Amino acid sequence: MKLGLAWPWGLDFLERADGGGWAESEPDPKDPNAVERRRMVRYQLGGDRMRPIRHQGVLAAMDHVPRHEFVPANVRSEAYADWPLPIGFGQTISQPYIVALMTELLDPKPTDRILEIGTGSGYQAAVLSRLVARVFTMELNDDLACQAAARFARLGCRSIQLRIGDGHSGWPEQAPFDGIIVTCAPEAVPTPLVDQLSDVGRMVIPVGPPGDQVLYLLSKRYGRLEQQDVIPVRFVPMRRREPPAQ
Ligand code: SAH
Fold it and tell me: Residue 245, exposed/middle/buried by CB under 10 A (0-12, 13-18, 19+)?
């Protein structure tokens, strides 16, 4: 039976199996990337993980977004591997599982407006754009931002807006946000980001110095902020915009 969910994109690869679980239609065998992507979803995001990804929309988005388009040519053969990859300028695209986990923790809804800090390759933003109404993403590095913008245009990711700037101050003109996802690690949660969360918003953010970072899920509940420590993680540091040379 096909699943008839009223999402803005098609979830048509998902079908309900007889046993009540989920089974997928097969990817196009002539598209090796689609086959690898399906393997990534099946074997890296589900089953064996301590905390398997269960959000069907997240699994569908990860099955759809062409991760190989977001990594440099020299590591393209590893695009669907179970580890992070370098994207130039000393930065990395997260391992698929971490992208999926952070997306699931945000609990994305089709009407949400999400802020991402650390566009990098644009992959995380592209995954989110399959799940929510609008994605606002900020990147400090001009070159990475331009490359990501070109990808969004080429792949038709029209619901993503990109701004070059220091994410420590967030994007006040577009606040409040239903969710904020930070993909570089500050030493402490930047206060402007907390302020820009809606009254019931959620923030997923790695915090701490290199080598000692924890992924937090922060949930706002009408003025109070609840903190949940999820797992130890390793992210590139959140940097500050250098002051212009005198
Ligand atoms: N989400 C990305 C991975 C990001 S890597 C992806 O899907 O590919 C972290 C990124 O955060 C890097 O591109 C880095 O340049 C950026 N970054 C670091 N400090 C920042 C800051 N203060 N504001 C915005 N971006 C920042």
Answer: exposed
CATH number of the domain enclosing 193: 3.40.50.150
Residue 8 belongs to a domain: no
CA distances (Å), 217 to each of 48, 67, 86, 204, 243, in order? 22, 25, 26, 5, 31
* 21/177 Cα distance (integer angstroms): 33
Contacting residues for 238 by C-beta, under 8 A, at least 6 apart:
117, 118, 167, 168, 182, 184, 185, 186
Residue 40: in which H helix or E strand, if any? Answer: helix 32-40
To the query of whether residue 198 is one of the catalytic residues in this protein, the response is no
Domain membership of residue 4 (yes or no) is no
Q: Pocket of ligand 1, candidates 101, 236, 242: which has the most ligand atoms within 8 Å of its Cβ, to mutate?
A: 236
Neighbour tally for 191: CB within 10 Å = 11
**What is the model's pTM?**
0.91
Asked if residue 101 belongs to a domain, the reply is: yes
| Phi and psi angles of residue 43, each rounded to the nearest 5 degrees, phi first | -100, -25
Phi, psi of 226 (to 5 degrees): -100, 140
Our count of domains for the chain comes to 1
Is residue 27 within 8 Å of residue 93, measured between CB atoms?
Answer: no
Mutation to probe ligand 1, out of 139, 196, 234 (largest number of atoms < 8 A from CB): 139
Q: Which of 34-48, 78-92, 175-189, 192-206 has the lowest mean pLDDT?
A: 34-48
- The string of pLDDT tens digits covering residues 48-83 is 788 999 999 999 999 999 999 999 999 999 999 999
- Report yes or no on 2 lying in a domain: no
Q: Residue 49: which domain range?
A: 14-233
